[in-house]
Amino acid sequence: MPFIETKAKKEIREINGKPTVVITPECEITLKNLKTGQEYMSDAEADADVDNPETDTKREDISRSVKLTVEHLPLGGDSQL
User: Fold this and answer.
1) Where is 3: in which H helix or E strand?
2) How do residues 13-32 score in pLDDT, each as one tens digit?
3) pTM, whole model, 2 decimals?
């Protein structure tokens, strides 16, 4: 089951004296053990499986998929924020 690492946001910051839109995309992570198919709900959970001497899970058995969702932003010289 995927988890959200960062939430989407849009803010205006002053950069080089000009108001600039800074976009942070939503970042959805899916961590999965390629051998067993087990999905992890956090990096810590996957690390714990790798570090557990009672499992044969290795770091290379863990797949990390990242899905970025960027908020719609109109483009062009006439765009209003």
Assistant:
1) strand 3-6
2) 999 999 998 889 999 999 99
3) 0.73
